[in-house]
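Ticket #4471: complex job returned nothing on first submit. Input attached below:
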Amino acid sequence: MNKDNALTEQPTYYEEVVNKGYSRRDFVKFVSIMTAFIGLEQSAIGQVAKALETMPRMPVIWLHFQECTCCSESFIRSSHPIVADILLDKISLDYTETLMAASGTQAEAALRNTMAKYKGKYLLCVEGSVPLGADGVYCMIGGKTSLQILEEVAEGAAAIIAWGSCASNGCVQSAKPNPTQATPIHKIIKNKPIIKVPGCPPIGEVMAGVIVHYLTFGRIPELDRLGRPKAFYNKRVHDTCYRRPFYDAGLFVETFDDENAKKGYCLYKVGCKGPTTYNACAVTKWNGGTSFPIQAGHPCIGCSEENFWDNGRLYDRASVFSGFGIESSADDLGKIALGGTLAAVAVHAVATNIGKSKLIHEHEAEGKESEKELE
Amino acid sequence: MANKYLHIPRLRRVYVWELPVRFYHWLNAAVIIALIITGFYISNPLALMSNKDASHQYIMGWVRYIHFAAAYLFFFNFLFRLYWGFVGNKYANWKQFIPTSKRFFQEMWKVFKIDILMLKKNGQQQDHLSIGHNAMAGFIYFLTFLAFLVQCLTGFGLYAGMSTWWLPRLFAWVPAIMGGDIITRQVHHWSMWFFILFAVIHVYLVFYHDYVEGRGEISSMGGGWKFIEEDVFKKNLHQTPNPEKTNDKK
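Support reply: We reran it on our side without changes. The output follows.
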């Protein structure tokens, strides 16, 4: 982490925690939890603690575009209070529309000050997609389009975190026909490291973990091929699901009100997208480890996957084919094609017997002649 | 009555399909059938009426195991066939499948007219075009090879996430490019229908050729032999889509 003049004026995270009234013990607990979440071994606890004790807190600009603020909501509900306190109050959120006290001119001034003072040093968090349609008029703040704001602020950012499915892949507002041309961040900003943290919303602890990792090591965490932190997105929900034994046994919920649902069988046949969704829901769970959708009896809808809204239905697993009707099951179309093929084959067989009758009769005569000669 | 036009030709035996080709063909047929059945089951499993605990059964597990095992066989069999396309006899050569000459397309058009539209050529109802694949069949097999490729890419792409072996992990880029596992799985499912439709037409046409030509089309994939009329053989009237010899007399 850089220790230049601009940043050393800032207090360290530990100082902030102490000022906030937390004990050393609380701080160490927090560090232990975060170390576990970001997938480090126990011996790294000291490293994380040291980073938070010695590093000046990092300025963060948190932009909101086309979104519902569920990412922020999720973040401030992280299980450990310090997560919200340190990382949100005290991460020095120098600018975030929904949580800062300032508004109007003061807010815009805060944004400009942070951008100028910490140029090249601040972390940019983006919640929401950027509408490019109609010159960006669908989402404007302070007289600027979100595209203008994003490009200006991204210019001086050290790294960018794309919070949630909106910023990572467009989410619901980019569903067909995507009237506002909602566009994810990585398709606009090409020259900065971008961490995608998809989910609608992402898990609060995952969000905190990504930030702590960045603070501790001063660089972005290891990402997978789609730009998501491997620590949280390298496993399918399906492969970590506690209902997996029912799947392997072939025991499924058929309808939401059947006996199998009461027994807690696998939700695969009522549309669970766990087998195609990469997220930490089944491991980290939600609301402080209380539960997650499948545990509550609802199939995973795959909210952290690209295009989850357009790729088939939420409550069955049929492969759909759009464009035939609104959408048709691939198997229905396949059956129609199969019927058509069989009919065509039958017609061809009849036509062969008529069209090539001379040839066929010749063969027959040939064969019969040979048969006679054998006698 | 029949004798006035009857001409009984002597048939020459030609070794068309070598043992590795026949082996490939039947292994391929078997694993594709297994893959389609297990694939359907995986996409929409039966409602088991069972009062046994999950710990006492492993139905879905076994079905998936068969699917994956068959997929590996399919994959290596496919690779082997590609290899044989370079070292096998001329009927197995890759040039039988990929159009590289104008003549290939001309023959395809000819096959289309005679076998599908059933037009008569010079009053004849059938022409002895090819000993191995005709150009149309060869080209369709080329399309099946592309379908094999799609299934291998999407299938191993989906499999890569839960594998520790380097081979399936080589395909991990596929879902990343396609935009996630959900769409990859759908493409895998759609493409499967190509195999079903292909199988129907393929089996029908084998019977068709055997019926109208009487040259051992069906049994050729068993023993490897096809038969060709002596006079056609002598006058060199047969052809292959991309012949090695250029002095064709036709």
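The longest strand of chain B covers residues 11-15. Closing as resolved unless it happens again.
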